[in-house]
Amino acid sequence: MSERKQFRAIKGTRDILPLDSALWNWFEHSAREVLESYNYNEIRLPILEETQLFARSIGTETDVVSKEMFTFPAGAGGSAGDLESLAERDEAQDLITLRPEATASVGRAYIEHGMHTLPGNAKLYYIGPMFRRERPQKGRYRQFYQIGAEVLGQSDAPAIDAELIEMLLVFFARVGLTKTTLYLNSIGDKNCRPEYIERLREALHKVKDRLGADSQRRIETNPLRVLDSKVPEEQEIIAALPRIADYLCDDCRAHFAKLKDELNLRDVVFEENWRLVRGLDYYTRTTFEVTAAGLGSQNAVCGGGRYDGLIELLGGPPTKGIGFAIGSDRSILSIQETGAAPKLGGLAVYVAWMGGAAYPTAVKLARKLRAAGVSVELPGEEMKFKKSLGLADKLGARYALIIGENEVASGKYALKSLADGAQRELGENELLEYLESERRGTGA
Ligand code: HAM
Q1: Helix (H) or strand (E) run with residue 360 in it
Q2: DSSP character for 9?
Q3: What is d(CA 127, CA 149) in angstroms, rounded to the nearest whole number?
Q4: Which of 144, 167, 308 maximizes ligand 1 atoms within 8 Å of its Cβ, making it the mutation to test the pocket?
Q5: CB of 305 closer than 6 angstroms to any ligand 1 atom
Q6: Most informative mutation of 63, 146, 151 for ligand 1 (most atoms within 8 A of CB)
Q7: Which of 69, 271, 371, 425 is the most buried (most CB within 10 A)?
Q8: pTM score, two decimals?
Q9: Whose CA is nearest to atom 14 of ligand 1?
Q10: How far apart are CA 284 and CA 261, in angstroms?
Q11: Beta strands per DSSP E along 245-386
């Protein structure tokens, strides 16, 4: 007999199992509550988009676009066979990509649905998976999840940036992610950045021989990215390079100064980091990142910034924009590793029934409890009380509800706490009341 292949989740993807999924649901639910309290509304976006959308928004020289996208032929003949002819295709619009991020999609949707005609700013959030072909490690996956928020409209007032950042930190505090650092920078705009990039490139050429191959290549393709380098030997050289702060034009300088005032007004603590340039090309002015404890090298739990030219680049009207994306995988990992995770989910009541006469009562009572929001496990087969109480314990139930023929006759049921063995005799209404209040955490 031939041995059957056993399948495993593909590299860089994983299953989120119970009860971790309860923590994920709580995390995402908390985000919805906080974001909606700031008047952001959810947009649900497709996972597939034209490859060109990402190439144009994120930039063809970025790591994400040049190395990390999962891209396929879009047509009906999009089979693996077609992949071989990809190199010959110059009609790149035939290609589609699993989204590596969602800001580009939000920009596409904003234009497609004429959202610039809506009153006020469009304040949107999204929750879902993103895909990047990166080398998997702790906190880095090929399918990972983001919670993102974006504001698009006519105004680039620093108060918008500050409120967005305040909201982010309010959310992190809500879910117990408090050992965090917020890094902040301004990378200028199309008026002042080109000159800075030229000065930076000149300075980099002078030290080229002392840089590694990656940084040497970036001098030509994307010199700002050299500032991101983590190579130990390059750190001292980078520290001496020209800094963007010295090249900001008056408008960008005033915007950054006002943003810092606005953050102080909101008691948002930040650290300025002139090397924070971010890995996507659409950014202008404000950039920020948040790192968290317990994560090792992949410790950025959120990245964001302003992208005032993006909508025009995608063929839309002049529009200002700013947003962020929280990495859910890493944030939840940090919450777990720092011991801030609440205990969630799990079974409240295991119904231990015995005797033919008890069964119909058990079925009806289980339905009533479930309707009241209590989680109930009702075994489909009769078991001795000893065995069902043992199983209730193994399943982690908080209570066993004992229903035998005597209980049916008296209309009083025994509710046994599996934590301390305490037992209460309760009629149906008392039972419902007790379990409902226990569920609300009042423990009455
Ligand atoms: P990003 O910095 O590329 O920005 O990603 C945001 C966050 O997603 C990161 O800080 C990290 O927590 C998480 N992340 C990224 N790649 C991975 C991965 N391979 N595995 C696990 N987590 C990951 C953006 O995506 C921008 N769209 C953010 C933005 C929105 N800017 C303006 N609006």
Answers
A1: helix 358-371
A2: P
A3: 9
A4: 144
A5: yes
A6: 146
A7: 69
A8: 0.92
A9: 327
A10: 19
A11: 271-272, 284-292, 300-306, 320-327, 349-353, 376-377
